[in-house]
Design brief:
CATH class of the domain at 5-208: Alpha Beta
Strand content: under 5%
Protein name: AAA family ATPase
Keywords: ATP-binding, Nucleotide-binding
Strand order of the largest sheet: 2-3-4-1-5
Region (Disordered): 964-1004
CATH architecture of the domain at 5-208: 3-Layer(aba) Sandwich
Largest sheet: 5 strands, parallel
Biased composition (Basic and acidic residues): 988-1004
Distance between the termini: 51 Å
Helix content: 55-70%
Domain Orc1-like AAA ATPase: 23-178
Radius of gyration: 36 Å
Oligomer: single chain
């Protein structure tokens, strides 16, 4: 610890600040403290001292882990060291609270439980998100929390990626992170470089350790060799080791072993001794330790950190007594030291590296094979053994090794470590496998990268399907083809995805279900394409296929779901669409085999079904499906594109329902997830498109325009994938909202031409004709009316209330006087029967304005007030402002002071009814058999809506002062009546009957 006073003061200050701020009630008090420097500069010693300081603080929880050079490829090695002790010590109830819904994701990854039988592979991002949740729950329970990681540069990639990400969130928690690592980029693996830079940039206290001063090195020398050490000798010694503490200690050992007097004339020998001290060769280690002890040291170096003596004994092929002598000698030579749990560790990682690197190649690979077998025999499993298996000799064609590697790969996928799985499978291919198994290994290799590396997946699956690589079982050929098409589609290659399935289906015989799966997939990818050569013909073929179905298996239902979406896009009668869609479900839920996380069909099938419901005014059903998707993706640990798409779908449904603030929240979440995965993926286009529509609806057209410019949401849009909803229609609508009718007309005309070619006439998904009518209204009024009438006709053919109402509302924008009023009255009537709250609000405001223009001010006022109330519920701020201006400009009150009782839902009224009698919240809860917390929430809503506290509540509800109960509430009635009888206030019960107002659906 010489010359480290400043670093120790900084560390102690960070620990004290954490403890002090937490004791004062602070929560968002986290920091990141880093120590960096070259090898041997003293980072490990410093970190141990910080660990000691933290443990002295009362109530502090200290977690420690260390990266290992040999364990860089062992997934979650560092995080398991760090978190297993504290999570494993939690009581069962607290463990469930800390884990929440992430137990089946984080538990297996952290080695706290085995994956369930039949569990799905985990998305690495899902594991990281789950760990975020767990630490968010754990940190306040074990605060102040100090988490130390030594040798971060050797941390496995799975642990490192989470630590770098968590360093950002740690500021919001009572957590001090302390990392020690080598600062030279050459010491970091290539795939870790970005995390290295991220950690360095996030540190609030960053210390780069410098070399020891001459004075410090002189003190070390004289403490070991006595005051007789001459200044000239000490200076040369300091110069040779360049102030490096590790090299200084190693050189001192050599000086002591050689019995070299520390005088000036001997200083010339120091450089030669330093070479032996730091560049330990096989010969030098043999001379120092002997063959048997060195072999034990090799076994220990292979095991890495936290070395089990029994395993090292068996790997080194020594007897128990021989191993005991080896350990004794290695401790004497300051190579190994004991840990508190009875295991061993190297005194310094540089010693471990030196010993491992002296192993002859044949010896090293052979001992790795022994280590893999001994680890598996010790019951530690294939996950732990696999890092040794991949280092063994290849080229022997051992089927047993191939089977083990394939099983290990499968287990790695179950804990969210696809890169580790791929290392195992690449090694299995190098064995090599039997000719009959090679294609299957390639298939497994392709699937292992499904969630992380699309390019690798495509290449490996194409090889698996190549006959020259060997036969692939028919069922696996179907699945490999589907997976290949899935990855191609997600990469934007939709045409190629459809053709792959179509061509394989033509050669699939003897497996009707597999053939139908591929045919359905081909139809699905064609449907999501930006453009298509034979859209109507494809739709006809899909209709023929649908009519030929005779069963109710998953494949049959999948075709029905695709047909429902196809008919939706074509604007076919909604009743026909819903008949197909309802036939897919079992009691309103997805059937077995078509679930969101199903491995056979993927999430696209249930998504198309939900989209069909969304555009056919069955939004509640769609929301149930989409909420299931969010939960299931979270439970499965799929936190990337899958959950992002679920957020998008829910945002779209909330937008269609008119809950604009909630829609914006979901869509922004989807966009953030998409940006985390890659640049301008199809998911991002979808989210941005609906977000633009939402911002326009909220009256923030300029913000919508800026978003479109920043993202590039303009022609030609995504190169190959269709945007949901239609991108060109959205862009034309955006141009209209910012006052560019000419540009809108051009964009919408082109959109209509493209959609007509495909035979898609849905006016909700692509309302191009109605908006084109508005763009043309000034310059070409007759042509505009033609388009508006066409839009209404298409909407009436489709038949949903929202489609017809919206088409009529937009038609009314190009008409005047009584004709506009009549169109809007019809629009309001239709939209009042639909779930499209925002569209209904716009129609109400438009009708109010139209009525005002024809002189019907009283009717205009009523519709404008209704429009304001509904627009406020929808968070359509711009529409509210427009309606208020419409009222104010003609001398009408911009805000109606209505009966507050009308704003209360029936549950709120029940609570208010008892509160005005003076009943305390607990008594209300008892009387209504409700939780006290729910009563308090309802009372808060009552006071907010009434604009009064408890004292003025009766008056706010329209009761005369003398009608209020003036006696305090008593548990027993004063008049001897039955206390179980419900209390009734005639004045309240006499209020006009109002329709119940269901509470707003909860968000996620």
């Amino acid at each position: 610890m010489r010359d480290r006073d400043a670093e120790l003061r900084s560390a102690e200050a960070a620990v004290d600040k954490l403890c002090r701020d937490f004791a004062a009630g602070g929560t968002e008090i986290g920091e990141l403290l880093t120590f960096s420097g070259r090898p041997g500069i003293g980072k490990t010693s410093l970190l141990h001292e910080v660990r000691r300081i933290a443990k002295l603080r009362p109530n502090a929880t200290v977690l420690f882990a260390r990266g290992g050079e040999r364990q860089f490829n062992e997934p979650y090695h560092v995080l398991r060291q760090l978190l297993q002790p504290v999570l494993g010590d939690l009581a069962p109830g607290e463990f469930r609270q800390v884990m929440g819904t992430w137990e089946e994701v984080v538990g297996p990854a952290m080695g706290l439980k085995q994956p369930k039988k039949g569990a799905r592979r985990l998305d690495p991002q899902g594991v990281r998100d789950g760990l975020d949740f767990v630490l968010t729950q754990l940190a306040p329970r074990r605060a102040p929390l100090v988490m130390l990681v030594d040798d971060l540069h050797w941390a496995d990639l799975e642990s490192l990626s989470w630590l770098a990400q968590f360093a950002v969130r740690a500021r919001e928690l009572p957590v001090l992170l302390v990392f020690a690592y080598r600062d030279d980029s050459a010491d970091w693996q290539q795939e870790s470089q970005d995390h290295h830079r991220a950690v360095a940039s996030l540190a609030t206290r960053r210390h780069e350790l410098s070399r020891l001063s001459l004075v410090a090195v002189t003190d070390i020398i004289r403490a070991e060799l006595g005051d007789r050490a001459e200044d000239a000798f000490c200076y040369e010694f300091w110069n040779v080791v360049n102030g490096n503490p590790f090299e200084a200690v190693a050189l001192l050992d050599q000086v002591r072993d050689q019995e070299l007097d520390p005088v000036e004339e001997n200083s010339l020998q120091l450089r030669e001794l330093a070479v032996d001290a730091t560049g330990m060769t096989l010969k030098s280690w043999l001379d120092r330790l002997g063959a048997a002890t060195l072999r034990f040291a090799w076994a220990a170096a292979m095991l890495g950190t936290d070395i089990r003596p029994d395993l090292a004994t068996r790997i080194s092929a020594q007897s128990t007594e021989g191993a005991r002598e080896s350990v004794k000698e290695l401790r004497k030579q300051r190579v190994l030291t004991a840990t508190p749990n009875g295991n061993l560790e190297f005194v310094h990682p540089l010693i471990a590296s030196s010993i491992y690197n002296t192993m002859p190649e044949a010896t090293r690979t052979g001992m790795h094979g022994v280590a893999a077998a001994e680890i598996e025999n010790a019951g530690l499993g294939l996950l732990a053994a696999s890092r040794h298996l991949v280092e063994t000799f290849a080229g022997e064609g051992d089927d047993r090794t191939v089977r083990k590697l394939r099983r290990a790969a499968s287990e790695h996928l179950l804990i969210g470590a696809p890169e580790a799985a791929q290392r195992c499978l690449h090694r299995a291919l190098a064995e090599p496998p039997d000719d009959l198994d090679r294609a299957e290994v390639l298939y497994e290799l392709g699937c292992s990268a499904l969630l992380t590396d699309p390019v690798a997946t495509v290449n490996q699956l194409k090889l698996a399907l190549d006959p020259e690589e060997g036969p692939l079982r028919p069922s696996l050929r179907v699945d490999a083809t589907f997976r290949l098409s899935e990855v191609l589609a997600h990469s934007g290659e939709l045409r190629q995805a459809a053709l792959v399935c179509q061509q394989e289906a033509e050669h699939t015989f003897g497996d009707p279900a597999g053939r139908l799966r591929l045919e359905a997939a081909s139809f699905m990818w064609h449907a999501f394409r930006k453009s298509e050569e034979d859209g109507p013909a494809r739709s006809a073929r899909l209709g023929t296929l649908c009519e030929s179905l005779t069963g109710r298996e998953a494949a049959d239902r999948a075709v029905l779901a695709l047909r429902a979406w196809d008919l939706t896009l074509r604007g076919a009668p909604s009743a026909e669409v819903l008949r197909h869609a309802d036939d897919v479900l079992d009691n309103g839920r997805l059937p077995k085999g078509l679930g969101w996380t199903d491995n056979i069909w993927g999430f696209e099938l249930p998504a198309t079904l939900g989209l069909s419901y969304t555009y056919n005014d069955r939004i509640a059903q769609a929301e149930r499906l989409f909420s299931d998707a969010i939960v299931q993706f979270e439970v499965a640990g799929w936190s990337g594109a899958h959950r992002g798409f679920a957020y998008f779908l829910m945002g779209l449904a909330r937008f269609r329902r008119g809950l604009l603030a909630e829609a914006e929240d979901f869509l922004r979440r989807a966009l953030r997830l998409s940006e985390r995965i890659g640049s301008k993926l199809p998911l991002a286009w979808d989210a941005v498109g609906v977000l633009i529509d939402t911002l326009i609806a909220r009256g923030r057209s300029r913000e919508a325009w800026d978003l479109a410019i920043d993202f590039g949401f303009h022609p030609p849009y995504h190169a190959t994938a269709m945007v949901l909803p239609d991108a060109a229609s959205l862009y034309g609508k955006l141009l209209l909202s910012v006052g560019r009718p000419a540009g809108a007309a051009a964009a919408l005309t082109e959109a209509g031409a493209q959609l007509d070619i495909r035979g898609w006439h849905n006016t909700v998904w692509a309302p191009w004709a109605a908006h084109l009518a508005i763009a043309l209204a000034v310059d070409e009024p007759e042509r505009a009316r033609d388009y508006a009438r066409r839009s209404v006709a298409d909407a009436e053919r489709f038949g949903t209330a929202s489609a017809i109402g919206t088409a009529l509302r937009l038609y009314a924008q190009i008409e005047d006087g009584q004709q506009a009023v009549e169109l809007l009255e019809r629009a309001v009537a239709h939209l009042g029967q639909s779930p499209a709250g925002y569209e209904h609000a716009v129609a109400l405001v438009d009708l109010g304005a139209a009525l005002r223009r024809v002189g019907r001010l009283e009717d205009a006022q009523e519709y404008l007030y209704q429009g304001i109330e509904l627009a406020q519920h929808c968070a359509a701020d711009g529409l509210v402002d427009r309606a208020r201006r419409e009222l104010a400009n003609y001398g009408l009150r911009p805000n109606r002071l209505g009966d507050v009782r009308e704003t209360l839902s029936q549950p709120e009224w029940d609570v208010a009814e008892l509160a005005v009698r003076g009943a305390p919240p607990q008594r209300i809860a008892d009387r209504l058999a409700l939780p006290l917390s729910l009563v308090n929430r309802r009372l808060a809503a009552v006071y907010r809506k009434a604009g009064s506290g408890p004292d003025g509540l009766a008056a706010a509800l329209g009761l005369a002062p003398e009608q209020r109960a003036v006696e305090p509430w008593a548990p027993e009635p004063r008049d001897g009546s039955d206390p179980a009888e419900p209390l009734v206030l005639p004045e309240l019960r006499a209020r006009p009957e109002l329709p119940e107002r269901p509470d707003r659906p909860d968000g996620f």
